């Protein structure tokens, strides 16, 4: 699976001002809903929050992979957001998070969902990619870092 197939400029934001886990998930849900007529902000937020209640998606090194399944979604989409400052996200390493790579998948895509998460996690384990994302000052910079 190619990350470029699920990420787009209009679903990427750089250095958003945020100070809480709930607020960053609201921002992600807002971006997703603005770019897809088939879903609304509340549905996305509920899906992301439900997943977080099962355990934090903060994987460490300042990175979180919030994700959820949505009815009515036709294909996997990603929302990539960096925050300033980094926020407490209950990450595995207990460090604050500043890179959020959110995935929304069609409700029925269980296997594809796991493969997509694995691909994204692999990409975000690359130190140079992460450095480039943290240096990014525009959405274009984030997309370049991921390509």
TrEMBL record:
<protein>
    <submittedName>
        <fullName>PTS IIA-like nitrogen regulatory protein PtsN</fullName>
    </submittedName>
</protein>
<dbReference type="GO" id="GO:0008982">
    <property type="term" value="F:protein-N(PI)-phosphohistidine-sugar phosphotransferase activity"/>
</dbReference>
<dbReference type="InterPro" id="IPR006320">
    <property type="entry name" value="PTS_Nitro_regul"/>
</dbReference>
<dbReference type="GO" id="GO:0030295">
    <property type="term" value="F:protein kinase activator activity"/>
</dbReference>
<dbReference type="InterPro" id="IPR016152">
    <property type="entry name" value="PTrfase/Anion_transptr"/>
</dbReference>
<dbReference type="GO" id="GO:0009401">
    <property type="term" value="P:phosphoenolpyruvate-dependent sugar phosphotransferase system"/>
</dbReference>
<dbReference type="InterPro" id="IPR002178">
    <property type="entry name" value="PTS_EIIA_type-2_dom"/>
</dbReference>
<dbReference type="Pfam" id="PF00359">
    <property type="entry name" value="PTS_EIIA_2"/>
</dbReference>
<dbReference type="InterPro" id="IPR051541">
    <property type="entry name" value="PTS_SugarTrans_NitroReg"/>
</dbReference>
<feature type="domain" description="PTS EIIA type-2">
    <location>
        <begin position="5"/>
        <end position="147"/>
    </location>
</feature>
């Amino acid at each position: 699976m190619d990350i470029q197939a699920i990420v787009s400029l209009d679903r990427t934001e750089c250095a958003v001002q945020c100070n809480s886990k709930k607020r960053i998930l609201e921002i992600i849900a807002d971006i997703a809903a603005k770019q897809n007529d088939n879903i609304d902000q509340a549905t996305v937020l509920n899906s992301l929050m439900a997943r977080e209640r099962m355990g934090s998606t903060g994987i460490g090194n300042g990175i979180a992979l919030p994700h959820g399944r949505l009815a009515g979604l036709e294909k996997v989409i990603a929302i990539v957001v960096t925050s300033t400052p980094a926020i407490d996200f209950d990450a595995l390493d207990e460090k604050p998070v500043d890179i959020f790579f959110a995935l929304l998948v069609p409700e029925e895509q269980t296997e594809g969902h796991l493969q997509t998460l694995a691909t994204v996690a692999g990409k975000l384990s690359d130190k140079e990619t992460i450095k480039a994302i943290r240096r990014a000052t525009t959405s274009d910079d984030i997309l370049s870092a991921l390509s």
